[in-house]
Amino acid sequence: MSKISKVSVTELRDRVLQIVGDAGQPIAVDVVAESIGIGWGTARAILLELALHNQITALKTSKGWVFLPRSQKLVEVHETFAVRKKGQIVASIKE
Length: 95
Hints:
By secondary structure, the protein is of the alpha+beta class. It is built from 4 helices and 5 strands; from the N terminus they run αβααββαββ. The protein has a 3-stranded antiparallel beta sheet. Strands 4-5 form a two-stranded antiparallel sheet. A hairpin with a 2-residue loop joins strand 2 (56-61) and strand 3. It is globular, with a radius of gyration of 14 Å. It starts with 8 loop residues before the first helix and ends with a strand.
């Protein structure tokens, strides 16, 4: 039988902020969920809450939400990144 550990919401938020900050590019909900070992819905709720409180930036794409650090400018994202999910480009930012 596996041991279930209880993690505080504050600790989860801190871990999500660290993952988004360390990603170096916009990051999808499923990547955050898998990195922490939480459900997709929980990851999405935490990410959207952090965006609501202006701690990260949320971008709605045709394939879903992606998130990036608040300090990263959208122009830098356009010049540098396309968001990939399972090998496909799911978001890009155009001028």
